[in-house]
Design brief:
mainly beta; 3 helices; disordered N terminus; FApF; Outer membrane putative beta-barrel porin/alpha-amylase
Length: 323
């Protein structure tokens, strides 16, 4: 083995345990692509922007109309006070050019279809204990196969408000401010597969109150800079009921910048929807790690068992060679 490569591996295994496991990651943790929200925050001292440029074609059989929609999705995320806490402002600002086929009349609607702010807090993290979740240094297979414990998800809760500023043509008569709550879960099924689920209740106590859910599965390729996702999202109540499917890819250019693209559609004709979104995520990283002295760290029971099993397997191999 090349001596430089050996040194780099020794450095990794010796010094990486000094870092306390938290919300912060070495590379950007984006909610894009798609609409499902991660259970984890960006980490203290991190300011992150996530923006998507969208185009959508709608044909509404009930209104005998069609429309073109141009707009932008955006989110500003800030990790503050605690590793588990995140402040979020997010929205969608769109321009809809609507044409009524029978009369030939045209109408333009421009405003926020989404405009909300809130806080998200991680209440349970199955990977909180760094000792019990260290990789098995003696078995590649143990680190890469599905394990039942991986189904246990991280769980976060969200509380915030949806804003309706001025005369919004998409929500005529909606109150200026209405509450919103949500729950997000995240499971790392394997090192390459991540499952996220969301349930939210929006515009609580209004005529526009709506339940929504999202289920997203992300797969990282052998080149970890590339990933693909599949997402299902549903809405019940509010302006209309609907179910959407999305799929797309994301590419990590560096630890602070990601680009993504996805396509999607629904299953209705009142209206039918087909859309495409090109997105970007960028973070300003002012995070500072908290270090734990190596002398204060204690080997976990799991690591001791791994080492014992490794020694036993070596003894068995030696006995076979002796015969």
């Amino acid at each position: 083995m090349d001596i430089t490569h050996l040194r780099s591996k020794l450095f990794f295994f010796l010094f990486i345990p000094c870092l306390v496991v938290g919300q912060y990651t070495d590379v950007i943790n984006s909610n894009r692509p798609g609409r499902a929200v991660s259970a984890y925050s960006v980490g203290t001292g991190v300011v992150q922007a996530e923006v998507g440029i969208l185009y959508e074609q709608q044909d509404d059989a009930s209104l005998n109309s069609d429309s073109n929609i141009f707009g932008a999705d955006f989110a500003i995320r800030y990790g503050v006070l605690f590793e588990q806490l995140e402040i979020i402002y997010e929205g969608s600002f769109i321009n809809q050019n609507l044409t009524f086929i029978e009369t030939g009349l045209e109408e333009t609607r421009t405003d926020f279809s989404r405009n909300r702010a809130g806080i998200k807090y991680l209440i349970f993290d199955p990977f909180k204990d760094p000792e019990s979740n260290k990789p098995n240094l003696y078995s590649w297979r143990a680190n890469n196969v599905f394990q039942w414990k991986n189904l246990i998800p991280a769980v976060s809760v969200y509380a915030g408000a949806t804003f309706n500023l001025g005369e919004n043509p998409f929500f005529v008569g909606a109150p200026t401010v209405s509450p919103r709550v949500a729950v997000a879960t995240q499971s790392r099924l394997t090192p390459r597969f991540v499952l996220i689920s969301n349930v939210a209740y929006d515009r609580i106590g209004t005529d526009f109150s709506q339940w929504s859910y999202a289920i997203s599965l992300t797969h990282a390729f052998r080149n970890p800079k590339w990933s693909v996702f599949f997402e299902h999202q549903g809405f019940v109540g509010g302006v209309q009921n609907d179910m959407l499917l999305r799929t797309g890819v994301a590419h990590l250019f560096n630890e602070n910048f990601q680009a993504d693209f996805h396509l999607g559609s629904n299953f209705k004709n009142d209206p039918s929807r087909v859309f495409a979104v090109l997105g970007f995520s960028y973070r300003l990283d002012f995070h500072k790690d908290k270090l734990v002295p190596i002398a204060d760290q204690k080997p976990s029971k799991e690591n001791k068992i791994q080492k014992q099993n490794f020694k036993k397997s070596r003894k068995k191999k030696r006995k076979k060679k002796d015969f």
